[in-house]
Amino acid sequence: MHRLIWVGALAALLCALPGSAAAAALEPIGKFKQPIFISSDPDNGERLLVAEREGIVEEVSQGATTQLADLSSLVSCCEVERGLLSIAPAPDFDSSGRFYAAYTGTVAAGGAEGDVHVDSFRSGPGGGAPIREPILSVGHAANANHNGGQLQFGPDGHLYISLGDGGGGGDPLESGQDTEVLLGKILRIDPHPGRAPAYSIPAGNPFASGMGRDEAWAYGLRNPWRFSFDRASGDMVIADVGQNTREEIDFAPSPASGAVGGAGANYGWNCREGFIAYPEPEPACKSAGAFTGPVFDYPHANGSPSGCSVIGGYVVRDPALGNLFGRYLYSDFCSGEIRSLVLPASVDEPVNDDRSEGLSVSRPSSFGEDACGRLYVASGDGTVYRLIGVTLSACPPETSTAPAVSGLVPEQIVVPRRKPQPLRLQLHARPAGARLKIVTQVAPCVGHEGDRVQLNRGGEPFGSKRLDRSCVARFLVRLHGAATFRALLAGSETIRSLRLTIEPRAAG
Question: Tell me: the pLDDT tens digits for 386-425?
């Protein structure tokens, strides 16, 4: 095991570009056949899922790789950009085994060769072939490029889907500005696998009142190959692949906790490409309203960054990655250089802090994020890397056991293994008496020293203390039965910890 770690560290150093001091390194976690996306069990970041372009989904757990599902009979691969595009494990994946997949289909999947399908899959009886439950399909047979195909569950619990403009060059189908078609859009639906209809339209979809397709959330996109949500703020970031001149990053700040921004936004394609006007716009551009411009773009040549196809990543929320924390990570298929930037406060402010991270991979296809907030990148040579920092990234265990407390043994501490928050709760039992010590800690600490943190018990304020120099505050509580705790940190907006549930069990 120690030898493997050293080999991984050496490989990471060899990937670093000369002359740069990287805040992170790249550690290989395995070799795959055309890895196209990386995710994990939403409740267990140690159970990693890697989607391969030809239609295989692999599971990596405890150093072993096993096949989770074979969708290759349904997946049309690999003409131009066709294949399995991405997957999204269902929120209850740990118990149901269900995941959603976006892919370009064969005729066996229904429709024409190359149509984009979004389906649910779950394990068959006795571990047999996965059971397919179709959700949505979109005609895409005319061209094999610009499929989009990112799936992400948003902070509002709805499923978001990206679709390209239908392919060709310059949007010949005129999909970008047409709200009556699904191509060139971000969609937002509630899937209902195995039911009819297979999905419903969530309240608040901007075109559900008859002004366009009910499923559409945002439009004016060319090929939004990858988009993501900031697990801390809920902000949506869309990396839209450009035509001949510019690559762009679009930004939709979250308007409130648990809400997604960008409803009804028109990101401009093909009236615009990045910050510039497109020379051959659709006729609809003459009557189009205001566009939501990108917050960042870069050229195909003569610059740094430069490239040919932006590969969007994630806002870094892994504290182990040091000064990368809070920055948006991205790359480009042609350059392979990994870069980061600080997203602005609003869509009206351009990015002014873009930098190289001194790392590079060959022909990156996608970034990925696990349930613990750790980040990954898939290389064109088949290697999937994890970004590691100078400290280890921790993923809290789902349960742990504390010593006896006033005759209630053992104490089962239930900590849901959900998305980590900036404010973390830890629980320790005092060695004597019927009291417990609850430790609240803010990470990263910088800027929070001396802030006041409040502890709630059962939804009611229990007490408040100021954080020390390590951003730690400790509370002593008496336990007489089951109890729930949550910590709150007040500031420009309230940060809440995960809920901590203590369930005493009688001895014996």
Answer: 999 977 676 753 333 333 333 333 333 333 333 344 555 5
- Amino acid letter, 169: G
pLDDT at residue 468, rounded to an integer? 80
Is there a contact between 123 and 73 (Cβ–Cβ < 8 Å)? Answer: no
The per-residue b/e assignment along 359-377, b for 16 or more CB within 10 angstroms, e otherwise, is bbbebbbbbbbbbbbbbbb
Query: CA-to-CA distance for 34 and 95, rounded, in angstroms?
Result: 28
Q: How many helices (H) and strands (E) does the chain have?
A: 2, 37
Q: If you write DSSP's letter for every residue of 224-265 in order, what string do you get?
A: --EEEE-TTT--EEEEE--SSSEEEEEEE--SSTT----TT-
Q: What is the pLDDT of residue 471?
A: 79
Contact between 306 and 298 (Cβ < 8 Å): yes
> At which residue do the structure tokens 């450009």 appear?
242
Which tens digit of pLDDT belongs to each residue from 178-193?
999 999 999 999 999 9
Rounded to whole angstroms, how far apart are CA atoms 140 and 222?
Answer: 14
Whole-number Å distance between alpha carbons of 222 and 184: 6
